Every structure is written in C-alpha cells, then in structure tokens.
C-alpha cells in the first residue's frame, strides 16, 4: 500500500518545497459515525481532497489527489506498485 502523504512530503523535500502543501480538515456528523473531509492546499490553492471515516484516511486520499495534480508522473509510477 502506498503511503501517499509520506511520498508527497518526500518529493516536496527533494525539490526544495518542503512544507508547501498544507492540510485543512473538518469533521461532519456524530463523533462515532461522522466523516472527515481534508483538503490539500499548495500556495493556498486546493490541489486535492479526500473524505473518510478517519482523519488519516481522508488525508491520505487528499495527498493522493494532490500528487496526481502536482506530480502526475510520480503518481502514475506509484499507482502501479
């Protein structure tokens, strides 16, 4: 399983852009049955989003989608693993 948040952070660091992607999260619904929504932001612009039962699940999806936008070749290579 690809750890998208870690992979995205590694690529950003390798390109001298560490910390460029930030995350905005919100929870909706009851604590035990709610849904997390996370947006990945690059320079204030949304580059990916994801939703899941946990904040980590939603962040991973947001990172995966941000990778698809910011680094499509890396995304494609990792998707094949």
Give a brief description:
The chain is of the alpha+beta class and 81 residues long. Helix content is 43%, strand content 30%. The protein has a three-stranded antiparallel sheet with strand order 1-2-3.
Detail the topology: elements first, then pairings.
Layout: H1 4-14, E1 21-28, E2 35-42, E3 45-52, H2 55-70, H3 72-79
Helix pairs in contact: 2-3
GO molecular function: RNA binding
InterPro entries: dsRBD_dom
Protein name: DRBM domain-containing protein
Could you characterize the architecture of this molecule?
This protein has 81 residues and is α+β, with helices and mostly antiparallel strands. It is built from 3 helices and 3 strands. It has helices at 4-14, 55-70, 72-79; strands at residues 21-28, 35-42, 45-52. The protein has a 3-stranded antiparallel β-sheet. Helix 2 crosses helix 3 (72-79). The model has no long low-confidence stretch (mean pLDDT 93).
Keyword list:
81 residues, alpha+beta, Double Stranded RNA Binding Domain, 3-stranded antiparallel sheet, 43% helix, globular
Shape: globular
Query: In oligomeric terms, what are we looking at?
Result: single chain
Q: Kindly estimate the percentage of residues that lie in beta strands according to DSSP.
A: 25-35%
CATH class: Alpha Beta
H-E string: HEEEHH
From the coordinates shown, what is the CATH architecture?
Answer: 2-Layer Sandwich
